[in-house]
Automatic annotation (TrEMBL):
Its main location: membrane. Pfam families: MFS_1. Gene3D superfamilies: MFS general substrate transporter like domains. The chain crosses the membrane at residues 33-59, 71-89, 95-118, 130-155, 161-180, 201-222, 242-261, 268-286, 292-311, 332-355, 361-381. This is MFS transporter.
């Protein structure tokens, strides 16, 4: 069997996810043109997570009933609508609307796109298809700020051109989805995704979810505030550099997840937490000494820690969850992750408004490091008890 259906779906996945991070290098420009603070920037960014959660929970199960292609096409429509809204964004409410639409597109694609890529894989690729879907997802998240940063810095119309390009990419994604056969058996039923964790999985879930929370909070920080850090703290106004820094955290996350696929889940989560602590230390030092090199290093190290702790944390939870409960547990895990993508970042915005961006950054780094250290200690304590038994 040919691989083109899987490749076309992976392209669509990448193109749509790229649109969700496309505005990152532009936040500083929006703030300048519309006269708002870092706090407003973090609120605009965090609104995206709300759209993702609505898409995941309200429509996450629909593709099992109506098919993958209709849901993916709906995701493309939301992505294109978001790009159109951003093309004419002239106020904060319009930016918020654009981010909600972008979040809805991501919410529809996150689960359905992964399932479609895996189902479209030929037999020879079946074992590698989940990893391929992961690369498409996170690769798109990293490509968005890199593409936008280059266009904003070196091309005309910095607040419009990126979204025009994304409209073309999203249109091609729609064509790609229409070209592949339906992969869903359409055996499910419509309804809101239930959230629950069975008793036998709760201890592992709590630790894994907190580790995932720390990692996603870090990702949110870089995606929402890295350009402001770079400009206000380091003194570099190059939007391409800002986009490259955000891209690096997603790239290292994707590579780390692939490298850790066969690692023991519990030990891998512990390793990821340790790496996150190191990343926070580097970030704190980068903010303190205003170093670009250290900020890039912090993004790479934090990406590794986030990728390993999140990916293997999900595996650890799945291992101790009955097969018929995995969908609801996985959804619960993602809800925790997307809350982490929004609330801590808004807290960072409040802290920046009260204390300044550098002090807020240091405080954030300490808080995440403490959370990751607590997760690491819990895992080590469990491993010690297991050895004694």
């Amino acid at each position: 069997m040919r691989t083109y259906p899987m490749a076309l779906l992976a392209y669509a996945f990448t193109a749509i996810m790229a649109g969700t991070t496309l505005p990152t290098p532009m936040y500083a420009l929006y703030a300048e043109h519309l006269h708002f603070s870092v706090l407003t920037t973090t609120v605009v960014y965090a609104t995206y997570a709300g759209g993702v959660l609505v898409g995941l929970l309200a429509f996450g199960r629909w593709s099992d009933t109506v098919g993958r292609r209709p849901v993916l096409l709906a995701g493309v429509v939301f992505a294109m609508a978001s790009a159109v809204v951003f093309l004419f964004a002239d106020s904060v409410p319009v930016l918020l609307a654009g981010r909600v639409l972008s979040g809805l597109s991501a919410g529809l694609f996150t689960g359905t796109g992964t399932a479609a890529v895996v189902e479209a894989a030929p037999p020879a690729w079946r074992g590698r298809a989940p990893a391929f879907a992961t690369v498409a997802n996170i690769g798109g998240l990293g490509a968005g700020p890199l593409l936008a940063g280059l266009l904003v810095q070196y091309a005309p119309d910095p607040l419009q051109l990126s979204f025009l390009v994304h409209l073309v990419l999203a249109g091609l994604a729609a064509v790609a989805v229409l070209m592949v056969p339906e992969t869903s058996p359409r055996t499910g039923r419509l309804g809101v995704q239930r959230l629950a964790v069975p008793p036998q999985a709760r201890a592992v879930f709590v630790v894994a979810a907190l580790a995932g929370f720390a990692g996603f909070a870090t990702t949110g920080l870089f995606t929402a505030v890295a350009p402001s850090f770079l400009s206000d703290v380091v003194g570099i106004d190059n939007h391409a550099t800002a986009g490259a820094i955000v891209c690096s955290i997603f790239a290292s996350s994707a590579l780390a997840q692939l490298a850790a696929l066969r690692a023991d889940p519990q030990r891998a989560v512990a390793f990821g937490c340790a790496v996150l602590i190191a990343g926070m230390a580097i970030l704190a030092l980068a903010v303190h000494v205003a170093s670009l090199a250290l900020m890039i290093a912090a993004a790479v190290v934090c990406g590794i820690g986030q990728g390993v702790s999140f990916g293997r944390g999900l595996a650890a939870v799945s291992d101790c969850t009955p097969a018929d409960r995995r969908a609801e547990v996985t959804s619960t895990y993602f809800v925790v992750a997307y809350i982490a993508l929004s609330l801590p970042v808004m807290g960072e915005g409040l802290a920046a408004q009260a204390w300044g961006l550098d002090t807020a950054g240091l405080t954030f780094a300490v808080a995440v490091a403490v959370l990751a250290a607590g997760c690491l200690a819990a895992i080590l304590a469990r491993e010690t008890r297991r050895v004694r038994v």
